[in-house]
Amino acid sequence: SITEPVIKKSIDVTSKLNKLKESKVIAVTAKNGIEVSFALKIYFVRNLFRADSFFNTSYTWDNIVDFNLDVSQGHNLKATLISSVYYNEKESSRIEARGFDTDAFQFYNTGAGTDPRALNTGFYKETLSSFAGRLNYNLLDKYLFTFTGRYDGASKLAVGHKWTFFPSAAFAWKASDELRHELKTASLFQCEADFMLRVYRKQ
């Protein structure tokens, strides 16, 4: 019998990821956090009952993605995308009563107290979201164009105005190389003119 050769092909995923990272075409940064807390305090002594509860939930979710691409010789394109989400919610309550004629109820029958002191509840919620994008175009490493847009929303703002868009644009010109060349030309022309003038005076 003839045994067919077995061809094994392995792919080095780690090296491919490292090459992609070294090329710096795409860079991703993420920062996330979640926090949940709960507290309950109960006081029960003779003729006095008080219970305080507190519950808090909050989280943040931030992400940044960068793109760097050489479209062709002398044309570079960079883009940045940003997103940020924040959420915070708090709940609280307090119950306090006095004047119990017996301790048998413990904290299961607060209505039996003849002297209610506190019956409060609280709620607070806050949200914030931001999304932004920036595009940079580099032409011949001399002319720079930047376009930016940001879209923000906050629960604290008035109804109908909770979201706002902020656009911006900018242009820059790297004149240092050209000015340096002009200064060198002007300096050379000045030296030549000064030399010709001195030669003419000697004659």
Counting DSSP E segments of at least 2 residues, the number of strands comes to 6
The average pLDDT value, as a whole number, equals: 78
User: What is the beta-strand fraction?
Assistant: over 45%
Report the structural category. alpha+beta
Walk across the major sheet and give the strand order: 1-2-3-4-5-6
H/E element sequence: HEEEEEEH
Share of helix among residues?
Answer: 10-25%
User: What integer value in Å does the Rg equal?
Assistant: 36 Å
Q: What is the overall silhouette?
A: rod-shaped
Number of helices: 2
Low-confidence stretches: 1-14, 191-203
Give a quick account of the main beta sheet: strands, pairing sense, barrel closure. Answer: 6 strands, antiparallel
Distance between the termini: 106 Å
